[in-house]
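Worked example 2:
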Amino acid sequence: MDQEYIDFRDIAPFDDSEFHEKMSLLVKEPGFEHAVCYVMPDVDYQGFVAGLLDVKDKWQFQHDVMWPFLEMLAKKTTSGIDMSGAGLLEEGVHYTFITNHRDIVLDASFLNLMMLRNNLPTSEVAIGNNLLIFDWITDLVKLNKSFIVKRNLEIKQALSAAQHLSAYIHYAVGKKGESVWIAQREGRAKDSNDVTQDSLIKMLALAGGECVIGNLKQINLCPVSISYEYDPNDYLKAREFLLKRNDPEFKKSQRDDLFSMETGLLQFKGHVHFDVGGCINRELDSIDPGLEKAEAIRTVCEIIDRKIHSGYKIYPINYIAHDKLHGVDEYRHFYTDDDESAFEAYLDRQLDKVRGEIDFQPTADDLGYMREMMYRMYANPLKNKRLAGA
């Protein structure tokens, strides 16, 4: 079926024709009011609502509401955000930006902030329905140019959902004239060892009517590397590693996901850097057409990984973490004694947050294990950049 005649309303962002109606309902939601007042404690909520109800469409919402909000968030929670490689983006070309995944909310939001600062079009954003805990959250993200990825389905439903999602992405890039953002894997890489999932590339290649490579070229895959100096969720990820080590059946709750979102959104991230690797269509052309489908997809994943790994910005704490993890001084010339002391003090403060939990009392061995996992998180980008030859 032609993509233009598929009904995508279950996953697509709201159409501008229904923007005002959906916004009018959203601002009446107590949960939305609570979230706004929590994130912006000094806000005049009624005045804020009046401004929202004057917004006519998604473009104006992103420019007049989300842009100032993200600038405020960047000022409060980072020491600066910048981007390299924007010159590789061609005017009038729409891309599928595929990135490593560090923060549940801010990876795509800060990328769109960089686009706004550079007078470039923002992207529609893929978001898993597992994070849409309340109906008003679904409405909010669909007002803000997000589309829904359906997860945790039975096998038959999962295949149908993947086909539907792939068709939508091809439609958005090829017909609607929108770029899209999607993470290279489902969920964040807890140890920052960023590897593209085969299943994601398989999904993207389902639509298009050509071979795997031909279908992927239609959506202009463009890897982007994200480098956070500090990960506010590092101690929560280390805690999760520990709990899974002690109980392989451990699973996070919705409350855990909400707290991770809140922590990533509001806590300090240091410097944040984006590196645009450029469209990989030329690299896709070099893939042997005789490869089996599975091998071709694996090759695409390797191309994306190499681009992302090469684009990392390496901070002093990445060098320190590598040397601490391996008990060496290999990168000693990239950091000072003060850098090392500051990083160790930072890890102490993060681990103190775990020590302070009422229902979780880690032993000295537990804390040592979590510290090692945090070293690993900060060392892996350096390891992967080095393996990529960058």
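The radius of gyration is 21 Å. The first helix runs from residue 19 to 26.
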